[in-house]
Batch of 4 targets.
Target 1
Amino acid sequence: MTENSRELLDKLRIDRTPSETPRKTALWVGLGVAVLLVAAAYAAWTHIKTPVAQFHTAVATKIGANASVLDATGYVTARRMATVSSKITGKVKEVMIEEGQHIKAGEVMATLDPIDADAQRALADSQLSVAKSEIGSLRAQLKLAEANVVRYQELVARKFVAPAQLDQYISQRDSLLSQLDTAQRNIQVATDQVRVATDGVDNTVIRAPFSGVIIAKAAQPGEIVSPLSAGGGFTRTGIGTLVDMDSLEIEVDVNEAYIGRVLSKMPVDAILNAYPDWKIPAEVIAIIPSADRSKATVKVRIALLVKDPRIVPEMGVKVSFRDAAQSTGADINEGVRVPATAIGERDGKPVAFVVGPEQKIERRALKVGRSMGEDRQVLAGLNAGETVVVSPSPNLADGVQIHIAPAEGSAP
């Protein structure tokens, strides 16, 4: 084979040596995937390692001039409230009340069917008439007997008749006198029976025992009412419930640990849950000298110094007891108030965690004052309007970013 033929065969042979370019490309692609995987793993590890905590917060409020020494909650109650019923069992004939109606003392609320009571009254009247007729007959007989006694006394004196006949007429007269006395007593009994029967008729008319407002209507015409609830579930025990709105007051349960702060005639600010912007002046009436062992509370009665139709029984109310004698104290009105649960402790000293810009935590050392119900007075370390963390966790520290949890009842 010549030289030229060998060169031609070498040109026709296939070159199977791998190329360097695809190998480099695959190397760079693998390196990029590895970098992405490392970055994703680092991000996931960082997210798990440092989660954003969620906390509830509260705002520090300035203590006013009339600072409360104690806060409590309670309800509006009526000192005079009655479920008005009848004295007798009977069928309701007519009901003349409706809820919300104002009525005066003695005003008719309802009437019962008076048929039985009228019959008893008619019978008593008849018995009284009979007793009166009997006494008329006895008086006529007594008049005749007394005349016979006088006449026979003259005849005996003249000895025209025997004394025995005079004794007979005297005995007859005395017997009639006794019967007349009995008849008079019967008339008194019959008169008393008429009065009782009249009261029975009057008992069919149910009247308001005092002036007030109807808050419940309990019976309808045709129903049976009874003060003894005879007849089970088909018998009503009352016509309606009447409340004297002038007797409204507040009852609160004060923790027995703080009852020493409450004094008689102490001024009180009351705020109804229904009208949170309306501050009602009030004062302590009495501290009930008995404690509830199950709740460790003492009941306190509070008088409302303002009468208003918006105040109704069973309304929820918040009260603040104010000590006028201490209102001029050195630090009684200083500082701010925050929930007691917002004050933590670090190294044995009280601190609070203030929510700063970008919701980052700033720890503040505090100078605390007196307890104010569920709140606490802070004399130094906080300013009015600052937001503090409520119930901070033990590991909460400066610079930690938190997430403020939505308030209870708010939309997510």
Target 2
Amino acid sequence: MSVPDTDAAGAPGARGVGRRRGHQVVDDPSTGRSPRLAALFLLPAALVLTALVLYPLVYSVVRSFFDRSGDEFVGVGNYVDTFTDRRTLTAFKNNVIWVVVAPVAVTGLGLVLAVLTERIRWATAFRLVLFMPMAISLFASGIIFRLVYDEDPDQGVVNAAVVGVHDLFSPSSSYPGAHPRDGAPFTATPEGFASTGTFRTGSAVTVPLVGFAPAQVPANAAAATAPTAGSDELRGVVWLDVSAGGRPNQLDGAEKGLPRISVEAVRDGGVVGRTTSGDDGRFTFPGLPAGSYQLRLPADNFELPFRGLTWLGPSLITPVIISSWIWIMTGFAITFIAAGLSAIPRDALEAARVDGATEMQVFRRVTVPLLMPVLLVVFVTLVINVLKIFELVLVIPPGSSQEEANVVALQMWQVSFGTGGDQGVGSALAVLLFLLVAPAMIFNIRRFRRERS
């Protein structure tokens, strides 16, 4: 009597990887599946992973317990140095900022844009445009954003926009950088340029200015003329004292008056009169009571034009780099979330709308809960990405703000291969970085396994 073949569970006729004969598994020719053949094909990949992943990981762990030269065992000394170094602590702080801000911003922005693009006609083209930054290397993107945030408005797009908006509501001064000539009876104060002495009503005051290009004098400026004294009014003239061959602090025929200069009359510390110079630079204070007054040219006459913000300075450098990373990675989030949206049953959305739910309620109570598994995978993947951020932090900050933008991956590279040259401490940082990334990786792997089971 013959006994039918059974698989591992004892089911007759079942087919698996092989046939069980007693306690020995043999190849099953009928299926063409062979564990030995599979192992043979997997061997090259296993060797590559061992050489590029497993060996460096084990070597880094071992190397982290040795000194700079690699000859003397120092135990956990490198780890102690890591947590007491100021630059490394700054790197850890910046990594925390990255993890808290960047993945949340990208996931939220990707969710909103993915939902909105479902309602537009050219949704695919729009998503393609948003995904295009992913095709650019992070190194090249860093160079682009280094130029975008350049402090010079003639080069940096952001500062050009900021300066344009600022000047729209607050025009720049008429004579930036101008100041009284040396020898004139005026001195610099926080409020502007004030006269060193006082002037009585009925006198005439001359105010020679330098430090301004003659070519930039307004076209309506007329030749400066000295005001007449002797009346009950306090008068004066402001002119650009830069004519070739002219006498310093003296009016010459070819010199231009400076229009629209604000002048204040000050008495006992308070402003008692204001006036503005005419096309020929002359000004008059009518109606001042008899007495002595100090003259002051307010600082807003001579303020330098607004040049924007120092985006690449120490105080703003980390938000700037995070903004560039958000621009790059938003397309990644949109692509994954849009794929999740396409898998949502439309019946659930329509049922909610039929029950009277608004679009915001449908989004909050139906769309987001159904997308939660996808959002979680996207978020965790982005967390892993920001923990390893390197290229943008290397390229975007100038040398003066590199330390304030530092992150763990960059610190590891600088300590190991830069000016530090200490691969013991660098290996300790590599191990710490792996320990930071490992929980997120394990979480993702477990989710994938649960979804497959």
Target 3
Amino acid sequence: MEIGQKVRVRRLRDRVSQEIIKKLGKTGTIRDFKVVDGYGVGMLVQFEDNTGTWFFEDELELFN
């Protein structure tokens, strides 16, 4: 996955807030990467409503 690609949130790995749970199934654009200790790389996804949050790669799928 690369910055600028469209992705869909396909699952959530951890317990998260209701606000993030609402993003399940939504599409957004990868805006940045973050190295996460012990878990690999996280991706900042920005959604159409201009909100954004970090996800792990296995929580996302490419959206065409």
Target 4
Amino acid sequence: MRLIRSCCCRFLFVARLQQQRTFIQMRTVLKVVDNSGAKKVMCIQALKANKKGARLGDTIVASVKEAHPNGKVKKGKVVYGVVVRAAMQRGRCDGSEVKFDDNAVVLVDKQGQPIGTRVFGPVPHELRKKKHVKILSLAEHIA
């Protein structure tokens, strides 16, 4: 009995190390990387994306879970956001792949204009193809 138990634990440990990164889907918690006032949001729905979920540059509907007390966005508000960093890898035209350590989003209004005035951290240049040039211009580093 002990032998089986230790093998199962070892298998679970190896499975966690080799965890496959997936799409951003419902109930995924994302970090907010602008100065809109929100800290963390939870994805409600991916808009105009793959049926499986959202990837880099896709727009999502999210609920604010943590927020600064004197920010523009308050806790509990439903907002739109553009995924600017995703842990799932994405292939580029030159054969290289881009993937990030975390999932991050920039909050936007219904017209797609950013709510904040600054974007922190690296942002991939694939957002240019998705017509999010304003986010690229606010970013401090383009990857």
